[in-house]
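FAQ: What does the model actually see?

It sees only this:
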Amino acid sequence: MITLITELSETIGFWTFTVEEDGKVIHWRPGFRTREHAESVGDMWIRHHLGGITLEEAEWEAKQRKADDDAEA
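And it is asked to produce this:
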């Protein structure tokens, strides 16, 4: 499972994001002034480098597939 973690680093005074895969850190980046910016850049990193989608997108796709399957039945 891929996890995006954002947190405020008290030592540097900026937000950071960490990308973990199966509990191992695979990317870390500091320097964001807001949590939202860190989350946005972290999401883009995951999409670009890992081909990932958000949980909301995955749930929507699953609902669409179910609706399509139900319509065919």
